Structure prediction request, 800 residues.
Amino acid sequence: MTEEIIIAGFGGQGVLSMGKIMCYSGIVQGQEVTWMPSYGPEMRGGTANVTVIISDERISSPIISEYDTAIILNQQSMDKFESMVKAGGTLIYDGNGITRHPERKDINIFRVDAAAEAAKMETTKTFNMIVLGGFLKIKPIVKMENVIAGLKKSLPERYHHLIPVNEKAVNRGTEIVQEIQKA
Amino acid sequence: MAENVINKDIVKEENLVYKKTDLLTDKPLSYCPGCGHGTAHRLVMEVIEELNAQDKTVGVAPVGCSVLAYEFMDIDMQQAAHGRAPALATALKRLNPENYIFTYQGDGDLAAIGTAETIHACNRGENITIIFVNNGIYGMTGGQMAPTTLPGMKSSTSPYGREVHSMGAPMKITELIAELPGTYYVTRQAVHTPAAARKAKKALKKAFENQKLKKGLSFVEIVSNCNSGWKMTPVQANQWMVDNMFPFYPLGDIKVPEE
Amino acid sequence: MKELRLMKGNEAIAEAAIRVGVDGYFGYPITPQSEVLEYLMLQKPEERTGMVVLQAESEVAAINMLYGGAGAGKMVMTSSSSPGISLKQEGITYMAGAELPGLILNVVRGGPGLGTIQPAQSDYFQAVKGGGHGDYRLIVLAPNSVQEMYDFVETGFDLAFKYRTPVMVLSDGAIGQMMEKVEVGEQKKRLTDAEVKERCPWATTGKDANRERNIITSLDLDPHQQEVFNHKLQAKYKEIEKNEVVLEEIQTEDAEYLFVAYGTSSRICQKSVQLARAKGLKVGLLRPITLFPFPTERLKELGKQVKGILSVEMSAGQMIEDIKLAVECNVPVEHFGRMGGIIPSPEEVVEALEQKLK
Prediction:
């Protein structure tokens, strides 16, 4: 199994940390992982994206031009990455702020309205965990228990009291993700 | 006539008034007759000897006339790239804090190309001793203008005299680093007379002893001459130094630790 | 039990420095490698092992601190990225000239000048051919994973002390910034003063009564002596070339075409090999892990086996010169690369192979 994923959105949305938690989860279950950010002067508010690869085998290129899954969290990222999903691959997006919805017919499309849900849950910082839940519902490449173990490893000890809230957010994500289109 | 025959009869303990410290090697000094480096080398080595610190001292030689200081000093030494001695000394001291570490630098090395290293080692308060021999000229490369060359003073790169408007004013780097909180003891000395040399030695000793206190950097400037570069006889050069250098670079303590 | 971490390349090299018992790190911030210094400062290595970590006033000062510390027989390292490595060249050639061990990490970014902050491999010539003035070489290690960033700290220091020479780890922004699984080693003790004196009898630790004074210098005013010393250096480099070549081969057994790539490019080429083979092209990959010494002998052999070689570098083509020298015109050698901080895609590499060599 090799899953090549792009997660893209605004800086500050938790794009990079979501990728990190996926990688930690992969390590917990004995897999190889690579987390390759687009780095640069963009901080909060700019665009941010990260390529995450989780595999049972040694990972080759950390830089790829086609993805199994694209997780898209703003319009700029939709414009940039929709075309880079492999035929038959998966695109998951949050509808918040999206003015042009995905148009390809040869990919699976899901929608997880995590921003709206996070606002409802009054925990806007768990936005990325809701998205992660949506992704894992569709692609259960890492087990939920390993996600929690991964969270523990990725969060500093002083934030461990937030793990239950995050767990709840991941679970909520699995519930609210909707299928828009099957390839 | 055998000129070098020593009258053994008078070489007796009670007749000895001067002895070269064992910490100077027997290699003949390569400095020009009348140059202050020889005396400055001797004073530094006498101080190390008096502190009984040969096995704990590491010196850093610069680029300049004293580039070969390690030929004359019988201690472990490193030879630095031009201006970088304080960076070497920083690492030497931090990695072996019980060692005595000093740099021995000239004006071009310390106050031109090495300005950043000098100022930042001083500002960090590295627990080292910097010995700064200032003769207002690049001696080794043949008498070019230095950052400390006096206004109007001729050198091979200011053949009509240092023109302050275009070449800048001489830099009083010793006063400058004295302003930094990291320096603990800053003084300006000379070695052209026995009295001056005795005072300079006292200052050097204090500068090394300060390393034990771990309170910051000790900086000893020695205003010296360069009779070859200045194109004077040794005697003229010393007089010119007294008449011209000392008024601009007055001798004495600049920053003394509060008791 | 082995300890696994998820780390950036820059963090891995910093953690390795603490764990293998490095005595001193001297650095200066520059993107994309500032995490090395940041990580070390955060980890309080003074408390963990007594390691000294210092933010210098410049790259020039940092490399000269390395010179001072290495001259005292200590394990010292620094890191920077391309423009900063250019500034360090002065200190590096002095270290080579004074035969001092030390580890220098270059997390390469696009150039020339201030360039970009994105990954590149355009410092190959500088790293492998000398970089500073005078006839000298560095041992150059090229990691292509975060694990190798970790592992090459110890490898690098072993080589540096074995040969009394500075060693460069030539990485790039991609490997510095990406995170991967890293198995970290046990904490090793730093050498004691007595162990330092035993390993480095030449070091300036303070002259005691039992030995002559030690002098660390790269100066010899006598040209004849200086020539003798140069011969000694060259003999050392020959010895390194004989003993220390390390390389990796992927699917070269039946290869009709060969990619040669190091670092990030070699990761991309691994995927390109898969893509090419899926198209029926028998392609293999040779990855030099040591760039100096270069795997000349093995390339010469492979040059007789394959129909063409593609040198894949994130530069205008620098390593290709060493490949051409190695294969002695027995086989066509072409270059493919992107520059300025652009990383080629695996597909582009396969296309280039098809266009240039088929």
